[in-house]
Amino acid sequence: MAQARVVDLQGKEIRKIDLPAALFDLEPRPFVVHQYVKMYLANQRQGTHSTLNRSRMEGGGAKPFRQKGTGRARQGTNISPLMPGGARAFGPTPRDYRQSMPKQMRRLALRSCLADLARDDKVVVLDAGEFEAPRTKTVASFLDRIGLSSQRTLILSEGREPNFALSCRNLPKVSYKRAINVNPYDLVQCDTVVFTKQGLARVEEVFK
Fold this sequence. Notes:
Blueprint: E1 3-7, E2 13-18, H1 21-24, H2 30-43, H3 103-119, E3 123-126, H4 136-145, E4 153-157, H5 162-168, E5 174-178, H6 184-189, E6 192-196, H7 197-207
Helix pairs in contact: 2-3, 4-5
């Protein structure tokens, strides 16, 4: 059974809890995670790249110079890819890079990432009240006390703490996200994931 330490906002460990077995207790599947990351990165591409081929260029009606006697290679048009300023041969054209994965595979990739983090003791649960006002210094000192100030940290919350989100926004190695929006790519990019109590419950409710 995977476990995680529960800490307060002062960085003191309160207790340890058993993480939900449905999410954290399985053998990670690196291949499925790799497939998801490939799909995610492909889906970020706009696919708007475009070059001018010969059919899209203007000009080229007359020979640029006579056929013989110049000492140059013969050319029939000034828009040939062989000519300076000519068309592009086999250049990129607009296309859709979008890929898809079955829902069960996406969920398996997410659970694999969570299980891998839990196996390396990279899951922390934060037990703290609501922030009365945005305070970046509070979050920075909390991360420093638990030894995460130099690590890429992903904080997952229920999403109903706007002051908490604002407190995390200016920290360079910290990402704040709603728990229901987390994906395997976010988990691959971080060194440690910090759940709020509500965020962990929300992840279990949605993804178990």
